[in-house]
């Protein structure tokens, strides 16, 4: 990792842990669940989509602190490790050979993209009842690894995906989160969220992630 990336991660972790230090009686817990992610936007021309990102399942796990700001309002910073997956599909790629008498072949080219992310959601949670709540807040993400594999490649043998060329990808992500949940018991909460990117990465893409998981208060 580059030094400035390590410094950024250290700052985020310091912010996360300082919340614990300032809270004399925090609720501390762990959480885990599944995510369903892609990038936006798709690429279209004259109403025809010629390249798109398709959602794929992943997972997240981590921990949280929860501080009461009032009877119904809570501040909950979290720290996650998340695996985001998506497929990039270029539709109708025309393949031609050097033989002028040979026809062309039209195929779809598919690339699997996997990102490993350290994420810091800073969440405000409001309880409408003793059990039902909504929450929202920013989510800062640091991409620690990115892997691309060409799964459907007309130039390779079937079933032998190859690694796409490496490039210097943007490793900082900023999203907004909207969600809701329900307290199943005093210690267990089910929570669903949608994260949408507000920071454009690699000059074109933004994150779009659905999550569903459980929280367990220690």
From TrEMBL:
The keyword DNA damage does not apply. Transmembrane segments: none annotated. Coiled coil: none annotated. Residues 21-198 form the Outer membrane protein beta-barrel domain. The keyword Signal applies. Residues 1-21 form the signal peptide. Keywords: Signal. InterPro entries: Beta-barrel_OMP_2 (IPR025665), OMP/PagP_B-barrel (IPR011250). It comes from the Bacteria. This is Outer membrane protein beta-barrel domain-containing protein.
């Amino acid at each position: 990792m580059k030094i400035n990336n390590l410094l950024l991660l250290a700052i985020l972790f310091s912010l996360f842990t300082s919340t614990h230090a300032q809270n004399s009686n925090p609720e501390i817990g762990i959480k885990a669940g599944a995510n369903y992610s892609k990038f936006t936007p798709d690429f279209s021309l004259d109403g025809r989509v010629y390249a798109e990102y398709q959602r794929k399942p992943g997972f997240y796990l981590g921990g949280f602190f929860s501080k009461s700001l009032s009877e119904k309002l809570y501040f909950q910073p979290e720290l996650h490790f998340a695996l985001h997956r998506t497929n990039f599909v270029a539709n109708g790629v025309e393949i031609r050979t050097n033989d002028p008498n040979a026809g062309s072949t039209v195929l779809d080219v598919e690339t699997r993209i996997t990102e490993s992310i350290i994420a810091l959601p800073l969440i405000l949670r409001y309880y409408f009842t003793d059990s039902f709540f909504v929450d929202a807040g920013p989510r800062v993400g640091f991409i620690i690894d990115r892997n691309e594999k060409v799964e459907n490649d007309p130039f390779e043998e079937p079933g032998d995906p190859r690694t796409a060329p490496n490039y210097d990808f943007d490793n900082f992500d900023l999203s907004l989160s909207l969600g809701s949940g329900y307290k199943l018991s005093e210690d267990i909460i089910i929570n669903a969220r949608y994260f949408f990117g507000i920071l454009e990465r690699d000059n074109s893409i933004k994150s779009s992630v659905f999550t569903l998981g459980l929280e367990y208060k220690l």
